[in-house]
Amino acid sequence: MSLSRLCGLFGFTRQGYWKGLRSRYAAEIDAAALLNEVSLIRGEMPRCGCRKLQVLLAESGHVIGRDRLFSLLREGGMLVRRRRCRQGHRHAPQRGCHSLAQGW
Questions:
Q1: In sequence order, which residues have a C-beta less than 8 Å from that of residue 89 and are 6 or more positions away?
Q2: Which parts of 11-64 fold into alpha helices (H)?
Q3: Angle at 30 between CA 81 and CA 65, to 5 degrees
């Protein structure tokens, strides 16, 4: 079956089919370059988060949205894991201190 016929069945033009392939390929190359740049930045600042990375990438010429960057980092396994809160002692019952001025 020819490409023209397949495109006609799915409601695409041939031009749209090839343009879509080129844009997907360019997006994959751009994603690889971004992840490479992120790994370089993380070498210097290992706990750098997504929003700060977005600013640093924009300064180096890679303009990308926050949600797209977050998705790329998730797919690449490069998200920073949240630290566990270790403040259990704050909720323990505390003894009250007696006021020294109370007996005066």
A1: none
A2: 14-44, 50-59
A3: 55
Q: Rounded to whole angstroms, how far apart are CA atoms 57 and 73?
A: 13
Q: How far apart are CA 23 and CA 73, in angstroms?
A: 20
Region 79-88: what's the mean pLDDT? 76
pTM for the structure as a whole: 0.56
Residue 49: count of CB within 10 angstroms of its CB? 13
The most distant pair of C-alpha atoms in the chain lies apart, rounded to whole Å, by 101
Torsion angle (degrees, nearest 10) of CA 51, 57, 59, 62: -130
SS3 content of the chain, % helix, strand, coil (to 5): 60, 0, 40
